[in-house]
Write a structure and sequence with these properties.
Elements (H helix, E strand, L loop, with lengths): L1 E3 L2 H12 L6 H18 L6 E6 L3 H14 L4 E6 L7 H9 L3 E3 L11 E5 L14 H6 L5 E4 L21 E5 L4 H4 L1 H7 L1 E5 L12 E3 L2 H7 L9 H4 L1 E5 L6 H14 L3 E4 L4 H7 L4 E2 L12 E4 L7 H11 L5 E3 L2 H8 L2 H4 L5 E3 L3 H7 L7 H12 L2 E4 L5 E3 L5 E3 L12 H14 L4 H20 L6 H6 L1 H10 L1
Parallel strand pairs: 2-3, 2-5, 3-4, 5-6, 6-7, 7-8, 9-18, 10-11, 10-13, 11-12, 13-14, 14-15, 15-16
Antiparallel strand pairs: 1-9, 16-17, 17-18
Bound molecules: ligand NAX, adenosine-5'-diphosphate and potassium ion.
Length: 474
């Protein structure tokens, strides 16, 4: 599990660490890690052409020291100083002493670069890129671009972007992940992430936002023991699908089966489709949710938004079991938020951006803050889908999911996600962990499904079991 830390936390931790170390030690660690990563990307370094974009602060200093390291190994390094009077003096001296040269900061100077190092601005950046940096950022798009700490122009605290930014292929970040590298547009602009250890763990506080890795998820995945049976493994009630949208019910139910629920009791109005597809499902059409023995519920996908759907959702949410609410269920919650707020049992809401706007303000450019506020307000776990799905619990804990692929943006893929989270809830995972684990597995399933060409949501559903196997194997 990797912690995600805001800029204030990082600055405080850096200052505390710096006070214990010789001057310049921290920057030397950062720059060396950065240079090694660049060398790895370049392959043969001797004779390679590297162009540094150097801003006014320590971010430019990192780039210059890394440039010096590379120049000493035969790289032809050129620094474009955006603020020549303010360029990091020690870094510039080291760079020049190693044979690095400087040139006018024009787009032409980037032509033919094997690698561009973006040291324009790091965690000290405010607002979008300044005008003079924009043509350089644009010219860098033709080359392999490595961002120093943060792609310049991205808000390191939120991932929000105003105007142009550097588009990095790789971001080499120091000490800890920042929210802006893993959430929203910033996550897109950061490319692949490499974290350089500069010893900051010693002074950083515990993180309230985390990114799960495969081992974290593997440790949480339910596995039946010798004493388990279908009931103890978790029974899930499903209220999804309708005569108009049977497919959503089929996808959601199928995903819950593949996710490992011990038994499924189906109470939606697409009973014939469910019977035809899944002989293992116990169809209890018309049963009152409160009369059924289940450990959790999933409600909403394709159930419609008419009065009958409202009544069914209300009956599900009146039970004392944890529940996932998705799609049409979220629309219904938008007009009756009390259905969720008044519950004692945990609820997981899984909106995309459009659905989010029906139950909360936003989402704003600061997606983590929007989701945390919604979770607090609705007293529910909120999972906001997107290229980096964000999950928050009412107590403020949050997770960002890094698995997945844009190919998951296909009709019905959300139904697969909610069924999967339902099966994990039924197995007894704490609601926010069920949401975070479900998002991780769904993302891996999407990646596996996409290997065979553009996947449908049915392909994603079929990839859930292989995804679980792959994650379980580590
Ligand atoms: N404190 C330390 O010892 C360490 C700092 N590190 C580096 O230092 C960076 C932070 O350095 P600074 O605090 O000097 O801040 P930055 O270098 O991120 O930026 C500050 C400078 O950029 C200018 N600036 C702000 N917004 C801008 C924008 N939108 N466009 C163009 N210029 C803009 C400001 O006028 C200021 O001079 C980190 O991101 C990291 O790269 C690392 O070397 C690790 C150790
Ligand atoms: N650009 C993207 N990159 C990665 N994942 C995406 C992207 N767009 C959508 N997804 C994922 O695809 C799924 C789509 O869910 P949703 O919008 O509810 O679809 P539907 O309503 O059709 O079932 C979510 O898990 C979301 O995170
Ligand atoms: K940068």
């Amino acid at each position: 599990m990797r912690g995600v830390h805001g800029v204030d936390e990082i600055r405080t931790a850096e200052n505390e660490l710096m006070a214990r170390l010789p001057e310049g030690a921290l920057m030397a660690r950062a720059a060396t890690g950065l240079a090694v990563e660049c060398a790895r990307l370049l392959g043969p370094v001797y004779g390679a052409r590297v162009v540094l974009l150097v801003g006014a602060g320590n971010n430019g200093g990192d780039a210059l020291y890394a440039g010096a390291w590379l120049a000493r190994r035969g790289v032809r390094a050129t620094a474009l100083l955006l603020a020549p009077d303010k360029a990091h003096p020690g870094g510039l001296a080291a760079f020049r002493a190693a044979g690095g040269r400087t040139a006018d900061p024009t787009p032409a100077a980037l032509a033919g670069a094997d690698l561009v190092l973006d040291g324009i601005v790091g965690i000290g950046g405010t607002g979008g890129l300044r005008d003079e940096a924009v043509p350089l950022a644009q010219a860098a798009r033709d080359a392999l671009t490595v961002a120093v700490d943060v792609p310049s122009g991205v808000d390191a605290d939120t991932g929000a972007v105003e105007g142009e930014t550097v588009h990095a292929d790789v971001t080499v970040t120091f000490g800890a992940l920042k929210p802006g590298l893993v959430v929203g547009t910033g996550a897109e602009r950061a490319g692949e992430l490499r974290l350089v250890d500069i010893g900051l763990a010693a002074t950083l506080p515990a993180a309230s936002t985390h990114v799960f890795e495969a081992a974290d998820v593997a440790a949480l995945l339910p596995t039946p023991g010798a004493a388990d049976n279908k009931y103890t493994r978790g029974v899930l009630g499903v209220a999804a699908g309708s005569s108009a949208y049977p497919g959503a019910g089929v996808l959601c139910t199928g995903s819950a089966i593949n996710g490992g629920a011990g038994m499924i009791r189906y109470v939606g109005t697409a009973a014939d489709a469910i019977r035809a597809q899944y002989p293992e499902v116990v169809v209890q059409e018309g049963a009152a949710p409160d009369d059924l023995h289940v450990q959790a519920w999933v409600a909403g996908p394709g159930m419609g938004t008419d009065d009958a759907a409202h009544d069914l959702l209300a009956a599900v949410l009146a039970t004392g079991e944890p529940a996932v609410v998705d799609a049409d269920g979220i629309t219904l919650v938008g007009s009756s938020p009390g259905l969720v707020r008044d519950r004692d049992a945990p609820t997981v809401l899984t909106p995309h951006d459009g659905e989010f706007a029906r139950i909360a303000d936003g989402p704003s450019g600061d997606r983590l803050a929007s989701v945390r506020a919604a979770a607090r307000d609705l007293d529910a776990v909120v999972l906001l889908k997107g290229n980096a799905t964000v999950i928050a619990a009412p107590d403020g804990r949050a997770w960002v999911n890094r698995t997945g692929t844009p190919w998951l943006g296909t009709a019905g893929s959300g139904d697969v996600l909610s069924g999967l989270i339902g099966s994990l809830l039924a197995a007894g995972l704490e609601a926010p962990l069920a949401a975070a684990v479900g998002a991780y597995v769904h993302g891996v399933a999407g990646q596996l499904a996409a290997q065979g060409g553009p996947p449908s949501s049915l392909d994603v559903l079929h990839a859930v079991r292989p995804a679980l196997r792959e994650i379980g194997r580590g």
